[in-house]
Amino acid sequence: MLCVLAVELRKLNRSLALLLALAAPTLIAIFVFFNMLRGKQAQPWEMYTQGSSAIWAFFMLPMSVTALTALVAHMEHGPRAWDHLRALPIARWKIYAAKAICVLSMVAAMSLLNLLLTWGAVSLAVIIKPVLAPTGVFDIGAQAVLLAKVLLAAILMIGIQFWIALRFSSFVPALAVGIGGTFFSVVATAAKQGVFFPWQMPINMLATEAWRVNTALALGCGLGTVVLILATAHLSRREVL
């Protein structure tokens, strides 16, 4: 399994995945930086970190997952490499499991990078405009825990996107589902039923009601793990269309 993971990581290193992993958190940091410079007085650290986490969970994470899963799938769909991979003397499920682990690892790295770049953006803005120096303490531990919950709640969404992207050789179904899911998440952001919608589960980690946080986290992580297992088993037994 470790050898399969190493091969998948090398494939990602040669693709545009690293550019994507850097671009999404960087865009959020740029927004935080310029938005902060528009201010006239100091605000608590939490305002900037929570705002950054909200943008990530609400919009940038779903779109990044859509792009990342499509990219990971296209590495095999594009050169029609599935026949070769499935003919190798290793269990087929390991190939798909390795790809799923790589996707989850990339999203985790992007989450961490989002936190670090937000801190860098705020620090740079303070250098330019010292009067905006945030009040309070930058609680990196609490923000890391929050982003970890966002990631866990997003596993169901990731599993769905992963399954569709690898199931179909065309990138259209995966993109359609990802864009559609993000669209309905945005337009129905105030709906109470959003806690049961995979694309809204990550943003519910910032909710003030404990039941919403716990429900979204349990469903996103629990059902997401089941979906990833089912996807791995299903893909291992079927041919790609």
Describe this protein's structure.
- With 241 residues, this protein is mainly α.
- The protein contains 9 helices and no strands.
- The protein has helices spanning 2-14, 17-37, 45-77, 82-87, 92-128, 140-153, 155-167, 172-187, 210-237.
- The mean pLDDT is 87.
- Largest sheet at a glance? none
Q: Low-confidence segments, ≥5 residues, pLDDT <50?
A: none
Per DSSP, the total helix count is: 9
Task: Report the helical percentage.
Answer: over 70%
Class by SSE composition? mainly alpha
Strand content: under 5%
> What global shape is seen?
globular
List the helices and strands and how they pair.
Blueprint: H1 2-14, H2 17-37, H3 45-77, H4 82-87, H5 92-128, H6 140-153, H7 155-167, H8 172-187, H9 210-237
Helix pairs in contact: 1-5, 2-3, 2-5, 3-5, 3-6, 3-7, 3-8, 5-6, 5-9, 6-9, 7-8, 7-9
